[in-house]
User: Fold this.
Amino acid sequence: MYRSQNAASGRCVISRKDYWGISLFIVLALSVELWIPIADEAVFYSLETLELLLDVLYEKGLGLDEEATQKATAWTGLLLSIGLTGLLLYKLPVIFRYAKAFLAKRWTMRKQAIKVWWPTLNWQQKLAHIAALGLFLGALVLVI
Assistant:
């Protein structure tokens, strides 16, 4: 949310939270080719570690042989996957409703702030903002 408008210069002071949110979005958008493989590897190694821990638990804790341990780990993984997928599908409509309400409220606040801020700019500042937006969208198109 914009905290203050300076009508003389046409500048807006953006909150620290919004600044870091926008900065994080830009960094993630421009580095997508880097962080997706990292996230993929992190998920893979986390699942492998959990599988190894289950194997050790079944083998040492319950005294199962290697073949039974592998079967028990596979079935446990399947049941956990089914359970987490069911929980996600159950919670997804609630999450979507919350996100829709939040984004509608945020959009209304932003639109109102821009309606107050935009008339304070002179034509050179308006042209500069439009050009900067065009350059930013062009850069995103090139990255994608």
